[in-house]
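User: quick one, sequence for these tokens?
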């Protein structure tokens, strides 16, 4: 389907349901908006990306070192990964994405940030289930089993209580969070995006698993509602190494 103002760029049937990538052109300036839908549900839109970018910026800001190695869980439209690569402190980035269609959209250039991500030698896409890899003995990097990272930043589920797949729920419980903590280096950071307000009980679970945790509010203008909107970035950090 194509018109000057609307185009469905791709449509795929996935294990989670029908996945589509759409482009809309907004009047009056002709700005292109990209949207990913799963069935009738909007997963993400380029209309507002402040919290996805903040996830990267806040997570990296909490790191003390340079030459850091990062994992991003969930590729989406690429804004978190792009913000990670904007930092010259980043040595390597693995982006774990369960849906091969999303990786294809970036590698083929259907999405605006795709060529920059695909062309950056620091960045590698990993097709896999982030939650399964987080709990596995091998971890996120098949080329280096057991590898640990300075930061793991995740934007997949809507919140720690609202999942794309019910099987993801175990990750947000104490045992799942503790397994993820073992994938971090000393002083490493876990960052999590959420569409919901901060949950004190979840922040406490993070602190118990990692050692320290907090919730940061990210407020921005939502043009669809013409009002301020607030989302959450959770940040947890493992204990630094004794020097």
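Assistant:
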């Amino acid at each position: 389907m194509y018109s000057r103002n609307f185009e469905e760029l791709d449509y795929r049937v996935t294990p989670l349901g029908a996945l589509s990538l759409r482009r809309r052109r907004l009047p009056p300036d002709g700005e292109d908006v990209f949207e990913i839908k799963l069935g009738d549900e909007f997963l993400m839109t380029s209309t507002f990306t402040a919290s996805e970018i903040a996830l990267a910026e806040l997570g990296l800001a909490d790191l003390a070192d340079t030459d850091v190695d990062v994992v991003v869980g969930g590729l989406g439209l690429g804004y978190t990964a792009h913000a990670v690569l904007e930092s010259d402190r980043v040595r390597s980035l693995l982006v774990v994405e369960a849906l091969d269609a999303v990786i294809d959209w970036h590698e083929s250039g259907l999405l605006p940030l795709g060529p920059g991500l695909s062309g950056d030698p620091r960045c590698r896409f990993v097709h896999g289930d982030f939650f399964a890899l987080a709990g596995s003995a091998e971890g996120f990097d098949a080329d280096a089993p057991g590898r640990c990272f300075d930061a793991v930043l995740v934007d997949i589920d809507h919140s720690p209580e609202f999942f794309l797949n019910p099987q993801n729920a175990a990750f947000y419980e104490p045992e799942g969070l503790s397994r993820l903590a073992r994938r971090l280096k000393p002083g490493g950071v876990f960052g999590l995006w959420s569409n919901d307000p901060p949950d004190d009980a979840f922040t406490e679970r993070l602190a118990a698993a990692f050692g320290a945790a907090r919730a940061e509010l990210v407020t921005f203008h939502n043009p669809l509602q013409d009002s301020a909107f607030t989302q959450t970035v959770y940040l947890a950090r493992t204990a630094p190494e004794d020097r």
